[in-house]
Design brief:
The protein is an alpha/beta fold. Helices cover 30% and strands 23% of the residues. Helix 3 crosses helix 4. The two termini are 34 Å apart.
Length: 209
């Protein structure tokens, strides 16, 4: 029997967020499917700026940057993501975690020092993450268009993501609730990062890299 796979979840757990419970459930679902044990632990973003943060991150087999932006520590989330990139650690970012992965690369590799999300109201001239039409219902600042299920997401043929769904799948249906997404003016940054776009929404919006 192999030792348990340890997953560190970068984020500030909030019991009111459905997505946070879904992360824990998804990991255990995967563990049952693959017949091994997974241990997961939430790592609060303020702790990621401390001197011993890298030692903590090294103790995990993989890292998941969670939804839940704006985080308690903007710098902490970027530090956690930077560790994964520099050390080539297994990494997944979803929703805010996905967005901050692009912000981290834009800042620390492309040299766009003020790369930011519109959510943070920083006054940055380089807003790489901006508001979307498909916004979370009931949240202040949501755009006026209807929010909810995105009927179709098109997967890039031959990508890892497509292989996870099944090689015969090119279009999938997924629930998408988010107030922000990649600003298309900065799509070039994903290419510079070596992050091919592997899923798009109905209007060509980036849904996965």
């Amino acid at each position: 029997m192999i030792n348990a796979v340890r997953i560190g979840i970068l984020g500030d757990f909030n019991p009111e967020f459905r997505s946070h419970h879904a992360i824990n459930d998804a990991l255990q679902h995967a563990a049952r499917k693959l017949d091994f044990k997974i241990e997961s632990e939430w790592i609060p973003t303020p702790s990621l700026t401390s001197a011993g943060a890298e030692k903590v991150l090294e103790s995990f087999d993989g890292l998941w940057a969670s939804p839940g932006s704006p985080y308690k520590s903007f710098d902490g989330m970027l530090k956690g993501i930077e560790f994964a990139r520099r050390c080539d650690w297994p990494f997944l970012g979803t929703c805010g975690g996905f967005q901050y992965a692009l912000i981290e690369f834009a800042r620390n590799v492309l040299g766009i020092a003020d790369a930011n999300s519109a959510e943070n109201n920083s006054g940055s001239k380089n807003v790489v993450i901006y508001p979307v039409a498909c916004a979370v219902p009931g949240r202040k600042g949501s755009a006026p268009k209807l929010s909810g299920m995105v009927p179709e997401i098109r997967l890039r043929p031959g990508s890892y993501l497509q292989s996870f769904y099944g090689k015969d799948k090119e279009i999938v249906t997924e629930e998408f609730f988010c107030n922000f997404e990649v600003n298309p003016d900065y799509e070039w940054a994903t290419m510079e990062a070596g992050f091919p776009v592997v899923a798009r929404g109905e209007q060509g919006e980036i849904r996965a890299i």
